[in-house]
Amino acid sequence: MKLLINEFIKDYRKVTTWIYMLVTIGLIALLQYIVSIGYDSKGFSTASALAKISDGAISIASIFALIMLANNISQEYSKGTIKFLYTKPVSRSAILTAKIVLAFINYIIFVVVGTVFNYLFTNIVLNKGSYDLSLLNEKLADGYFGRTVQQQLAITNLTSLAVMIFYIAMVVLLCVVFKTQILSLVLVMISLLGGSIISGLTVLIVNKFEWAKYHLFNVPLFQTFYENEDKRYLVKNMYKFDNANTLLVMLIAYSAIFFIVSYVINSRRDITID
Predict the structure, then answer these.
(1) Would you state the pLDDT for residue 49?
(2) What is the pLDDT of residue 83?
(3) Where are the domains of the chain?
(4) CB 92 within 8 A of CB 267
(5) What is the per-residue pLDDT for 42?
C-alpha cells in the first residue's frame, strides 16, 4: 500500500498529469458544445442523454490512463530510476503491480472528473437544460433491452473497466519488452488506433475463416456487445460472436497471458539501463 501511495503522489506531482486532466476537460467541453448546437433549452433533459453522460469521459480517460502507464514504466528505464527502485526492500513484482493498480486508479479518477465536469458544464455554462438526475430510474426507449438509465450507466462503466484490464495488460507487456519511452508510446498508440482497423477488417474474412475472429483486437467487442441492441446485432452478425461468453474468455485469456509474460520478463531482466 505504501508503494502504491508513493507512486500516486509521484504521478500527481507531475505537470503532465494535470495537463492530461485539463485536456480531458477541454475535449469534453468542446464535444458538448458541438453536440449542443441546435438544441433547445431542454436538449439534454432526456433519459437517453443522461445514459450517455460518461461516454466521452470513458473514451478520453482510457487514452490518457494508458499513456500515463506507459510513461510510468518506460521512464523508470530511460531515466535510470529503476536501479533505485530495485534497491528498495520490495520485489520487482510489487513495483510493477503498484504501477498497474495506479493505472486503474487514474482511469477511474479521469472518468469521474470528466463525467462530473460534463454535468456541470452542460447545466451551468451551456445552459441547455439539465441532465435530470430524477431520470436515473426511468426506462430507456426501445433498443436498450428494457434497461433503466441507472442500469445502462452501470453496464457501460463496468464493461469499459473490463476492457481496460485488457488494454492495461497489453500496454504493460509492450513497455516491459520495449523499455524506450518514445517507442513504447508509439506502439501503444499504434495498438489503440490500428487495433480498431484490424478489427474492422475481420468482417471481410470471418465468413470464410471463422477462426480469424479470435484475434486480440476483437476483445473490445465485449463492451460493444452490451452497449445496445443495434450494436449487439452488429457483433453477432458481422463478427460472428453469438454471445459475450467467448469474448469474455478472450479478454481473460489475453490479459492473463500478457500479465504473466510481463511479470516473468520483469523478474528476470537485467537492470542495466540502455
Answers:
(1) 80
(2) 64
(3) 2-268
(4) yes
(5) 57
Residues 6 or more apart whose CB falls under 8 angstroms from that of 3 comprise 90, 94, 95, 98
**Per-residue model confidence (pLDDT) at position 40:** 58
Can you list the pairs that 3-9 forms with residues at least 24 positions away whose Cβ atoms lie under 8 Å? Answer: 3/90, 3/94, 3/95, 3/98, 4/98, 4/101, 4/102, 6/98, 7/72, 7/98, 7/99, 7/102, 8/102, 8/105
User: What whole-number distance in Å separates Cα of residue 274 and Cα of residue 232?
Assistant: 47
Q: Please report the DSSP string for the chain in residue order.
A: -HHHHHHHHHHHTSHHHHHHHHHHHHHHHHHHHHHHTT--TTTT-SHHHHHTTTHHHHHHHHHHHHHHHHHHHHHHHHSSHHHHHHTSSS-HHHHHHHHHHHHHHHHHHHHHHHHHHHHHIIIIII-S----GGGGGSBP-TTSTT-BHHHHHHHHHHHHHHHHHHHHHHHHHHHHH---HHHHHHHHHHHHHHHHHHHHHHTTTTTT-GGGGGSGGGTTHHHHHTT-HHHHHHHHHHS---SHHHHHHHHHHHHHHHHHHHHHHHHH------
Kindly state the cell numbers that stand for 161: 473497466
pLDDT in tens, 20-64: 999 999 999 998 888 777 665 555 657 888 888 899 999 999 999
- For residue range 155-210, list pLDDT tens digits in order: 999 999 999 999 999 999 988 888 776 777 777 777 777 777 887 788 788 878 88
